[in-house]
Design a protein that fits this description.
With about 220 residues, the chain is an alpha+beta fold. The chain is about 20% helix and about 25% strand. The chain has 4 helices and 12 strands; from the N terminus they run E-E-H-H-E-E-E-H-E-E-E-E-H-E-E-E.
Length: about 220
């Protein structure tokens, strides 16, 4: 739960209450999915659904030894004899990314322009707020800026890598310079790969990558 500070007033849960994790599907749905999956892996092209599926997972699940984990995402973990990477049941997800700031509101405005993020219309950010949340338009990505008393001292151990959507890397770097960013280093390569290291108005490092990876399997 996020506690948002409005001067001396603190309100809890004002930001993320609407984005709580989805509820787990009913037991019937999970049991039915387990049954169908086990029958399919057993080689039955038209599996019959067990009548007991509404009460508990089908016994065929235990008989199909390749299946070691079935979750509601769904994801299946296979044994070590099966080629390819194993899928593990999800244990956590990223709720949001938080940044310490000298001025949370100013940082939220800058990064809103950088990423085309928006604020919560039901809880808008205002100058003086000590916590300012912005989010992608589909609400899938959230950044929270928190005002702290201490200044940034050393290079960040974590930073954002940005890939331009509708322009080249160089054009995007020029746009961000006009917004108030600064350029720290140039790591561009002749083949079009590489990146430009920049900093936001408070000195937080981030990188601008090329619009598309120059080669399959590369990230820069």
């Amino acid at each position: 739960m996020i506690t948002r500070t409005r001067g001396s007033e603190r309100t809890q849960g004002s930001h993320l209450g609407r984005w709580a994790p989805r509820q787990r599907p009913p037991a019937f749905s999970l049991a039915l999915s387990d049954c169908l999956l086990a029958e399919a892996l057993a080689g039955n092209p038209e599996p019959a659904v067990c009548e007991e599926a509404a009460l508990e997972p089908c016994a065929r699940v235990a008989e199909v030894k390749q299946v070691t984990a079935i979750s509601c995402h769904p994801q299946v973990t296979v044994d070590s004899t099966t080629p390819g990477p194993k899928a593990a049941a999800m244990t956590s997800r990223i709720s949001h990314t938080s940044f310490d700031a000298s001025n949370a509101y100013a940082q939220s405005v800058f990064w809103s322009h950088v990423l085309d993020f928006v604020q919560d219309p039901d809880d808008p950010n205002e100058p003086g707020h000590e916590e300012c949340l912005i989010m992608s338009r589909d609400q899938s990505q959230l950044l929270l800026f928190i005002t702290v008393p201490d200044d940034k001292q050393v290079k960040n151990r974590v930073h954002l890598d940005l890939r331009p959507v509708d322009r080249t890397r160089d054009q995007e770097a020029q746009r961000l310079l006009k917004l108030g960013a600064s350029q720290l280093a140039d790591h561009r390569r002749p083949d079009g790969s590489g990146w430009i290291t920049m900093a936001d108005p408070e000195g937080n490092e981030f990188c601008i990558l090329s619009q598309q990876p120059p080669r399959p399997g590369t990230s820069t």
